[in-house]
Amino acid sequence: MSFLEVLNDVVGSINGVVNEYAWYIAFVFFVGLGLFFTIKSKCVQLNRLGEACKVAFTNIREKKGKQTISSFQAFCVSMGARIGVGNIAGVAAAIVMGGPGAIFWMWVFAFIGAATSFVETTVGQIFKEKKADGYFHGGPAYYIKNGLGKPKFAIFMSLLIIVTYGLMFIGVQANQASTALTDAFNTDPIVFAIVLALLAALIIFGGIRRVAKVSTWLVPIMAIAWMVLALIIVLVNFTQVSAVIETIFSYAFGVQAFVGGGFGMMVLWGLKRGVFSNEAGIGSIPNVSSSAKVKHPVKQGLIQSVGVFIDTIIVCSATAFVILIYTNVAYPAYDFAAQGVAGALKGSPLVADALQTTFLGAAAPYVLSVFLLVFAFSSLISYYSMSETNVKFITQKKWAVLVLRLVIVVMVFVSSLMSMTLAWDLADTFQAFMGIFNMGVLFFLCKYAFQALKDYFDQKADGVAEPVFNPSCLSSQKGITCWPDTEDEEVVIGSLDAELDGRKKLD
User: Which residues does 213 contact at the CB level (< 8 Å), separation at least 6?
Assistant: First the structure.
């Protein structure tokens, strides 16, 4: 038995325990606190949707400094993290393992998660820091240290983020891309393991500015291309749309959902794959969105709440419709709860089979492999930027970033040779931990997001076209170092200026 086979058995056993205990705890945190955030924000994800779309899709070429990331660039990088193989293989896995009703619950959790994403992103902006490299850095580690005043816990969280996103989540992306390419071109897996590792090295050794530049044009193109393909397939099979919708709701609320524990499985898979896809509440997005230069933290909070809807309600739904059109036509009596076909068509192979019945025909596996490759790398560069931010939280030493980059390249290579089950098990295990810790922290810090939200719309009500944040609107200014801000340069308060001067030669 090989090392990877032994590792697969060990991780599988551990993951079974995590699914039984940690994921149930995570479920309470994700859903319970998500509903709490929705109520306290007065349903910001819907009531302020118009303003959110406005700030997300206007001023695309907004002014930014030499060492700052624009709001739109941060949005694209964060969408790169959200839009990945979870939108293709993850949706297929949710349908197979939880039934079509899992898609309905992905929608429900997207609605709840949009409020959570608003809170964590706004809090991340409030407690971000400006490092010696001239960039803004933020995320769970920063708002734990600055907001909660718990530096040791912040270091633990930073390490957990590096392992979760820099290793486990990147592992899933690389694994799915490699699997699709290997199946399509019928070649030895090690060939694409080497290719993917080399491509990863070329991108991540360019640093965060290259990450932002690549994501700015890559994310819109890949999302639009997948959406156009899915839309064409749906339009060609327009008569099946009502049947697809009926299938989703009948499985979500029909008798089969409540037999043999099927309802709990369906809901849990909807949550797992939904959170993996839109990443609301697991602390990943604030790492990227905090790097944006904005005049008010709420601006990024609103932008990221829209990102959750785009990822799940639009992109994931497109994939689900393609799959369900195929299964409704090819397997009219398809039993998603049974083994047999479900066991054979698990993950991306199910999507490939669905695409092969369309006008793509035999080209489908090749087309799908290209999409998975692009989706995987859009996520990879986002996860890298998150990991780099957290390495710099722990230390400003250049060697630490170099080690991170080398480890990620190695992880891409190793993960490309892993079994699909092992890659997903690793990601699921750490995703549950991230959700529990991050949502727990947000419970204590969410008041700042709600106070900032009130300030933003109070200014809008007073006729201010673009509100400017001043921390005096908050109940406490402790731990805030990067506000207020001015139009042309960021003002860093207190001793951080002296700290930056003392470290200016480090980076």
Answer: 73
Token pair 């619950």 is found at: 105
d(CA 61, CA 461): 26
Alpha helices in 416-495 (DSSP H): 420-461
Q: How many CB atoms lie within 10 A of CB 28?
A: 11
Report the distance separating Cα 493 and Cα 188, nearest Å: 56
Evaluate whether 164 touches 433 at the Cβ level (below 8 Å).
yes
- How many residues in the chain? 507
User: Are residues 85 and 177 in contact, defined by beta-carbon separation less than 8 angstroms?
Assistant: yes
pTM for the model stands at 0.84
Q: Please report, in tens digits, the pLDDT of each residue of the chain (507 residues total).
A: 566 667 667 766 776 677 678 888 999 999 999 999 999 999 999 999 888 888 877 655 555 544 455 566 666 666 665 676 778 878 888 887 788 888 999 999 999 999 999 999 999 999 998 877 777 888 999 999 999 999 999 999 999 999 998 889 888 888 888 888 887 888 888 888 898 888 888 778 765 566 556 666 766 777 788 888 888 888 888 888 888 898 899 888 875 555 545 677 788 888 888 888 888 899 988 987 888 888 999 999 999 999 899 888 888 888 899 888 887 766 665 555 543 344 444 566 678 878 888 888 888 888 888 888 877 777 777 788 788 878 888 888 889 989 999 999 999 998 888 877 778 778 888 999 999 999 999 999 999 999 999 999 999 999 988 899 999 999 999 999 888 764 433 333 333 333 334 434 334
- Residue 187 carries which side chain, given as an amino acid letter? T
Helix (H, G, I), strand (E, B) or coil at 154: helix
Distance CA 441, CA 158 (A): 13
